[in-house]
Design a protein that fits this description.
It contains four helices and three strands; from the N terminus they run H-E-H-H-E-E-H. By secondary structure, the chain is of the alpha+beta class. The mean pLDDT is 94.
Length: 94
């Protein structure tokens, strides 16, 4: 039996955690994702860039009053990649 390849971009613990959070919400603020994942701001920024460059998430930068606000949401491409990853992972478990 041959197993499907697991997406290396999603195989990272932090990137998988981000995708898992975003799959269940319309969007999430950077601070919320940072708190939920326990990541440092710098590391989270790098991982969000990787997911964004792959087209898995969209990142919107705006302001809330005078403070910068970064909001992330999962894209259709990201949903498909996440679902494929989970389904491929199930093959290993079964």
């Amino acid at each position: 039996m041959s197993f499907a390849q697991l997406d290396p971009l999603l195989h990272s613990q932090l990137r998988l955690a981000v995708m898992s959070l975003l799959i269940g919400v319309d969007s999430a603020e950077f601070v919320f994702i940072k708190e939920k994942t326990g990541a440092t701001a710098g590391n989270l920024s790098v991982q969000l860039d990787k997911l964004s460059n792959a087209g898995y998430i969209s990142v919107t930068k705006s302001f809330k009053g005078k403070k910068p606000l970064t909001t992330c949401s999962i894209t259709k491409v990201g949903i498909k990649a996440f679902e494929d990853y989970v389904n491929n992972l199930k093959q290993y478990i079964e």
